[in-house]
From TrEMBL:
Top-level lineage group: Bacteria
Keywords for the protein's UniProt record, in alphabetical order: Cytoplasm, Lipid biosynthesis, Lipid metabolism, Metal-binding, NAD, NADP, Oxidoreductase, Phospholipid biosynthesis, Phospholipid metabolism
Stored PANTHER family: GLYCEROL DEHYDROGENASE, GLYCEROL DEHYDROGENASE 1
Cleavable signal peptide: none
Protein name: Glycerol-1-phosphate dehydrogenase [NAD(P)+]
GO molecular function per UniProt: metal ion binding; oxidoreductase activity, acting on CH-OH group of donors
Pfam families assigned to the protein according to its UniProt record, in alphabetical order: Fe-ADH_2
InterPro entries: G1PDH (IPR032837), Glycerol_DH (IPR016205)
Gene Ontology biological-process entries: phospholipid biosynthetic process
Entry-linked SUPFAM superfamilies: Dehydroquinate synthase-like
Length: 505
């Protein structure tokens, strides 16, 4: 190769490298800019949320933030004594360190309360146990853990007339910053009114190192906010539940970005788990600001509530809240997709009104669908009575729905994630994506749909289908031949992947 050719060749190589380096730098700059913008947006949302929340006044989230626990404690509880509450696992991963940090900061402490029962869960026996500990001291509880430890400490702190703070160890649910605690009493899972923590610290590197199933459960709980948002749109449109724009935005803005990398969450990517945790915490703030779970809960959660009451267990163990809600999310999404394909503009409102049952007839249906089980019937009667409307009320609701539908349909279509994509993401994150994976047969799943209209007073897409007379047809599409959850005559099932399109109704 002569000198001139060598020169041009080397120049080409150098210029190409410069271009590649520049392109890489530009991509990196864009990535960090997106991260910076996202971080600023989250910070702004947190600040706005803290101004609206009734209970929580401080939140620190970030890698290596455990040392800030002491500073937060001193700020929120001046001159207070601390009492670390943990279980064996959370004591090992963070509790011992929190105890040391508080001690080195000169904060007086009681002996830590470490639950050692391997079957620990949010059950009344453990509430009474922790109540006894707190009754004997005036120390401020510092919960170190996730759902169970937080709910036990939240409720027991309230019982003993004091506030608490929490150091989260997993991105497993949205209850950290939510008002109320979910605890099982007398065999029934119930939500007890009690204030959210006064402050919270969460290190996503600790959460990312938690068992993958915990992040998977949190992811399933977060993706449930997608159909829950669509349910709220429907409830607002018919006049059943007015939208709170602040709370809705707190949950929904940035939600899809937080859900964009389920594989990263499953792999324990710290940045992705941090996004997941932020989404869950903001959902809790929205519930706290409204003193209602409406911003973060729709039909998908009603399936979970039903299965809680039925004491669902799989392989001898209880099923996590997120995993139940994940299957409920698929159910709700399937109904929302069929609603989008339904000719709502041509809905015969008067036909629906004529077919609408009186309260006396509805009461008989409730007793029948729950096989006269006293507990279920009592719940069904109360919840259904709260949202029941007479014929004139139904006429008004359906007329409003028809009038709003041209614009509402587009909003719901933009809101939801397609059924197949929800299924794929749940699978990628390591969460159940078929009902059998949580111990629900296809036949039982169909029966669950039929109970949902009576489970909660909250208006959802299931109520739309029920009041428009579409329930049976939609269930046949889901569970009949060719359906996504086809039930075979011989008791076997056929696994599908798509929701059949709705025909004219």
């Amino acid at each position: 190769m002569d000198t001139e050719k060598k020169y041009f060749f080397l120049r080409f190589v150098v210029e190409r490298k410069i271009i590649l380096i520049f392109a890489f730098a530009l991509r990196a700059l864009r990535y960090f800019r997106r991260c910076f913008v996202y971080t600023i947006a989250i910070m702004n949302k947190v600040e706005s949320a803290l101004q609206r929340t009734t209970d929580t006044k401080a939140l620190v989230i970030g890698v290596d933030t455990l040392p800030q626990t002491a500073e937060m404690f001193k700020s929120l509880f001046p001159a207070g004594r601390a009492l670390v509450v943990a279980d064996l696992n959370t004591w090992r991963v963070a509790g011992k360190e929190v105890h040391r940090i508080l001690a080195e900061a000169g904060i007086a402490q009681d002996e830590p309360r470490i639950f050692t029962d391997p079957k620990l869960y949010a059950e009344w026996t453990f509430v009474e146990e922790l109540d006894g500990v707190l009754a004997a001291t005036d120390a401020v509880p510092v919960a170190v853990g996730s759902g169970v430890i937080n709910d036990l400490t939240k409720l027991c702190s309230h019982h003993n007339g004091r506030r608490y703070m929490v150091v989260g160890t997993a991105a497993s649910m949205d209850g950290y910053t939510a008002y109320g605690a979910s605890v099982t009493k007398d065999g029934n899972k119930q939500t007890f009114d009690c204030p959210a923590p006064l402050g919270m610290v969460l290190d996503p590197s600790i959460s990312a190192a938690a068992p993958a199933k915990m992040s998977a459960s949190g992811y399933a709980d977060l993706i449930a906010k997608i159909p829950a948002g669509a349910d709220w749109m429907l409830a607002d449109a018919v006049g059943a539940d007015k939208m709170d724009d602040f709370a809705f935005g707190l949950v929904q803005e940035g939600l899809k970005e937080a859900l964009c990398d389920p594989a990263g969450v499953h792999a324990g990517n710290v940045a992705k788990v941090e996004q997941l945790a932020e989404g869950l915490l903001l959902s809790g703030f929205a519930m706290q600001a409204t003193l209602s779970s409406r911003p973060a809960s729709g039909a998908e959660h009603q399936f979970s509530h039903l299965w809680d009451m039925e004491h669902l267990r799989f392989n001898g163990a209880s099923v996590s809240h997120g995993f139940k809600v994940g299957i409920g999310t698929l159910a709700s999404t399937a109904f929302l997709e069929m609603l989008l394909d339904a000719p709502v503009e041509q809905l015969d409102v008067e036909k629906c009104v004529a077919a609408w049952k009186s309260w006396e007839e509805t009461e008989r249906d409730i007793r029948a669908v729950f096989d006269n089980d006293p507990e279920f019937v009592a719940r069904g009667l109360k919840e259904t009575r709260d949202k029941y409307v007479d014929k004139e009320g139904l006429r008004e609701q359906l007329t409003r729905l028809k009038r709003a539908w041209p614009e509402l349909r587009g909003r719901i279509r933009s809101q939801i994630i397609p059924f197949g994509e929800v299924h794929r993401r749940l699978e990628l994150v390591g969460a159940p994506c078929e009902p059998e994976q949580i111990g629900i047969s296809r036949a039982r799943f169909r029966a669950s749909f039929e109970k949902i209209p009576y489970m909660r007073s909250r208006y959802t897409v299931v109520d739309v289908a029920f009041r428009c007379g579409w329930m049976e047809e939609w269930l046949d599409r889901l569970f009949g031949k060719g359906g996504v959850w086809q039930v075979e005559d011989r008791g076997q099932v056929s696994i599908g992947r798509g929701v059949p399109a709705a025909s004219g109704m």
